[in-house]
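Memo to structure team: turn this sequence into structure tokens by end of day. - J.P.
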Amino acid sequence: MLYGIHQFFCVFENDAYLPHYKGSTFRGVFGRALKKVVCALKKQECGQCLLRQRCIYATVFETSVSLTVPEGSRTASPPHPFVIEPPLTTETKFPKGSSFNFNLLLFGEIGSSLLYFIYAFEQMGRIDIGKKINNSRSKFTLKEVKNESSLIYSAADKKLNTANKLKILSIDDPANLLDKKIFLKLICETPLRLKFKNISRSIRPPVFL
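Reply from structure team:
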């Protein structure tokens, strides 16, 4: 499976107040911005939309109606093909002009649609985010996007470099692991919600699994 890790560099245009854990805040506003950018039938529900199997928004946020789960799979619905990695700082107050950087991970074929994500995040900066300060929320400017050391986007010239570097994510053949005991230790650094048999459980850090 192909995947890409992209670094986004932003600057707040005014004072900002964000929660301790910032992932859900950015994910929600990003969803609104992406739908505004790519949705052709904005009044149509994704589940009934004829374009759902070709729509980037449906693939990213309504994955269960866009992709078909293989018969016999133990997965009730396919996972979303993206992860937003906000900074792990618990700082909540950001003065005007301060930087705010995060990573965007894309998995599978959606990685070839990075330019739509960049445009959506640029538009997202114009949408209010965080808590209100003096009756207004914060806005930010997307300055640069990089993939490793390669510059993909710069606000200085508004140019996009389409040479997107993707890597192959692979694991050993499970047949080679049948006779081995494998122990995994997971450390939850941000809140986690698990769902099994329609029962949800929320886990708040720090937790060892």
